Write a sequence for this structure.
């Protein structure tokens, strides 16, 4: 998985490419734990993300909880597979998906 | 200590020596007393008699001093010169003869109740008496009836003399003897009675030393005999008996033969006893020695037999499942020898990939000879079978080999078949063995009767004919030795073929192993407590037939998360070959990620282990099946509670989502725990 981040003052955009799964989720988690300082608007760009596993969902959930306290978070360009997963797991109701 | 004293006393009281010596001494005392008593009386009697006779003679002599014709004159009161002279003589006589009293009396013959004294001379010094002299004419009453009768006897002259013994006397007197004789006148008639009294002291004086001697003799005899008996009993009786008893006690304790007792007593019985003890010890020691040797020998034999038993068991296939990789047949066999080793055997092996040789045999003998013969036969058949050839050829050659070296004239019955696994065709030959039983798929076990050839090893030059059995997939073949139908219960009833088939059909749907266990149990239940007298051997083959060519691919690797990529790549190969739509492939990859991650994290934690992933495809409808197999702790992921997906981000819990996603995205998901394995199978239609 490739992670690209783009910081613009209080706005952070993270673009993920590949698969967010058991092996790669810890990578994202580590990155986010150090990058969210002062971030008020977090955008996760899933345009090039193939799929997401429960380990990825875990990271999304904990990040969402964190951002609830300091600003907002949105997920963009969600593909069909991931959208279905968000739907069946109820993450569609939790996340802001554009 | 306090208890010792009475014990000692009791010991003394119960000692043979003391008892015997005591009895002897008591007898001797009794004997001595009797002797003494008899001696006392006989001495007294003879002394008295002798004393009386002597006194009589003295008295008779004294009468010569008295003139019987003049007694009346004396009484008339005239102390004549003759009277005085006679008195003087008598006095001198009295003194000289050492008698207490000499007197002459005239008794009143009317009733002898009175008498009158004529002469009366006394010497008080003799008997220590205090008599006073009776004067002439002194009258007295007769003392008692005895005197009266004896006076009468004197006057009537019915006895030459009479004697009166006065042992108990009244005052002033001493025990004495009075002897009386008649004083006759010239006409011979009794004119008076002359009495002499002598003290009895002489009797007691003479008797005392006599009695003392007898008593002393008796006592001496008691001592001598007692001591002699004691010594004799001690040396001849007690000491040998003690020796025998000590030796017997020692032998009982040590069980080791000691010095022989030898000739320890002259007494026949004791010598005999000692000899018996010696003989017993020798015999016993020999016996123990023999027994020890025999026991050691038996133990050695036992060890060798159990070794032999292990060797025999190892000489035939005894690890099951014997062919775990083969799905086209399943075989199970068991051999239960009646003794440590048996004459039955079975064997099976793959001659090549497509040919399974099956053989079962029963040697005409049990135990070691049967086992040796069985080993030889089994090896000959195996060797020959590996060289190739049909069952008939194999049996024909092996028969020839056995006959050449069959010293013991034993023989063996054999059922030998070669199964062509791809077709289910069995070519078999039967050398006098029981018919096989076959259970067709969906049917029941039935005997499959064929021609029997002659037993193996029975005769040279036999050619064995072959027959054919066609197995269809799902059929079962059951082979056995006669130990099954001929198993015998306590009342000599046989299990029989009918019960065998019945037992087989009770378990016909089970695996070969379960079928054999079931038949064995039925046989055991029938036999009950009766001893097993024949070897019991069974073999069962299940023939599922050739398996359809599967497209299953398997990958076994360490269950760690780092290997998830390898697993997905492995599965993707199959998926790409099928032109699987990308979305479905993604979903399957996701499922692999979730499930393999689960196994990697939990199945063996904190250890690690292997996991196998199998991927296979199905047609109509086309589907991909991925199976995850691990040997970790049993865990059914389907039993996990579904997460509540309606909760807000703050309320949501992490966990359980992965399985949930897999269930939602896959078309089927099954779990089972079998043979120590977690088997999780997912299916996705594509």
């Amino acid at each position: 998985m490739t992670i690209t981040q783009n910081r613009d003052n209080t706005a952070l955009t993270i673009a993920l490419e590949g698969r967010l799964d058991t092996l790669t989720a810890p990578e994202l988690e580590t990155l986010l734990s150090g990058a969210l300082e002062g971030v008020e608007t977090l955008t996760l760009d899933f345009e090039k993300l193939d799929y997401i596993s429960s380990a990825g969902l875990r990271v999304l959930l904990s990040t969402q909880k964190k951002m609830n306290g300091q600003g907002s978070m949105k997920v963009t360009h969600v593909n069909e597979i991931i959208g279905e997963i968000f739907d069946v797991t109820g993450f569609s109701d939790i996340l802001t998906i554009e | 200590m306090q208890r010792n004293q009475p014990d000692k006393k009791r010991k003394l009281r119960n000692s043979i020596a003391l008892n015997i010596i005591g009895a002897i001494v008591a007898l001797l005392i009794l004997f001595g007393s009797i002797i003494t008593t008899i001696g006392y009386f006989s001495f007294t009697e003879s002394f008295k008699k002798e004393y009386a006779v002597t006194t009589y003679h003295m008295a008779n002599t004294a009468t010569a001093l008295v003139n019987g014709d003049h007694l009346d004159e004396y009484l008339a009161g005239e102390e004549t010169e003759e009277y005085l002279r006679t008195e003087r003589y008598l006095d001198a006589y009295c003194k000289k003869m050492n008698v207490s009293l000499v007197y002459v009396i005239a008794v009143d013959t009317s009733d002898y109740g009175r008498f009158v004294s004529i002469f009366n001379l006394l010497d008080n010094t003799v008997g220590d008496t205090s008599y006073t002299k009776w004067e002439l004419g002194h009258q007295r009453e007769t003392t008692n009836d005895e005197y009266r009768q004896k006076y009468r006897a004197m006057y009537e002259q019915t006895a030459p003399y009479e004697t009166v013994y006065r042992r108990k006397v009244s005052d002033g007197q001493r025990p004495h003897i009075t002897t009386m004789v008649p004083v006759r006148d010239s006409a011979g008639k009794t004119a008076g009675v002359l009495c002499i009294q002598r003290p009895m002291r002489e009797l007691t004086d003479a008797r005392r030393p006599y009695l003392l001697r007898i008593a002393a003799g008796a006592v001496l005899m008691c001592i001598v005999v007692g001591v002699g008996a004691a010594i004799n009993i001690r040396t001849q009786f007690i000491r040998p008996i003690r020796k025998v008893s000590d030796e017997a006690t020692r032998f009982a304790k040590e069980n080791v033969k000691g010095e022989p007792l030898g000739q320890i007593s002259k007494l026949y019985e004791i010598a005999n006893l000692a000899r018996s003890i010696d003989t017993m010890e020798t015999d016993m020691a020999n016996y123990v020695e023999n027994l020890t040797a025999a026991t050691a020998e038996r133990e050695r034999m036992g060890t060798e037999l159990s070794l032999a038993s292990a060797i025999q068991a190892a000489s035939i296939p005894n690890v099951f499942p014997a062919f775990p990789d083969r799905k086209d047949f399943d075989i199970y066999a068991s051999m239960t020898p009646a003794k440590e080793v048996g004459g039955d055997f079975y064997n099976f092996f793959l001659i090549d990939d497509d040919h399974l040789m099956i053989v079962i045999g029963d040697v005409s003998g049990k135990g070691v000879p049967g086992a040796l013969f069985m080993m030889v036969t089994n090896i000959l058949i195996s060797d020959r079978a590996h060289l190739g050839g049909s069952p008939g050829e194999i049996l024909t050659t092996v028969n020839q080999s056995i006959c050449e070296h069959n010293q013991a004239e034993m023989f063996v019955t054999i059922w030998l078949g070669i199964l062509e696994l791809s077709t289910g065709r069995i070519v078999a030959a039967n050398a006098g063995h029981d018919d096989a039983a076959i259970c067709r798929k969906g049917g029941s076990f039935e005997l499959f009767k064929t021609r029997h050839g002659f037993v193996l090893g029975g005769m040279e030059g036999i050619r064995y004919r072959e027959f054919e059995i066609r197995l269809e997939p799902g059929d079962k073949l059951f082979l056995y030795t006669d130990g099954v139908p001929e198993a015998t219960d306590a009342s000599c009833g046989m299990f029989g073929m009918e019960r065998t088939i019945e037992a087989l059909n009770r378990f016909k749907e089970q695996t070969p192993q379960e079928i054999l266990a079931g038949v064995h149990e039925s046989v055991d239940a029938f036999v009950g407590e009766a001893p097993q007298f024949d070897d019991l051997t069974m073999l069962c083959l299940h023939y599922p037939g050739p398996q359809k060519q599967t497209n299953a691919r398997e990958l076994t690797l360490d269950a760690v998360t780092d290997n998830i990529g390898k697993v997905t790549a492995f599965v993707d190969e199959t998926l790409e070959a099928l032109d699987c739509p990308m979305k479905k492939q993604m979903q399957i990859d996701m499922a692999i990620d979730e499930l393999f991650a689960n196994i990697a994290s939990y199945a063996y934690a904190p250890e690690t282990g292997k996991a196998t992933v199998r991927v296979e495809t199905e047609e109509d409808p086309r589907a991909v099946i991925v199976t995850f197999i691990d040997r970790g702790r049993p865990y059914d992921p389907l039993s996990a509670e579904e997460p509540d997906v309606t909760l807000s981000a703050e309320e949501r819990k992490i966990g359980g989502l992965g399985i949930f996603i897999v269930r939602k995205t896959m078309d089927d998901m099954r779990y089972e725990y079998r043979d120590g394995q977690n088997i999780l199978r997912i299916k996705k239609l594509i």
Notes: The first strand of chain B starts at residue 101 and ends at 107.
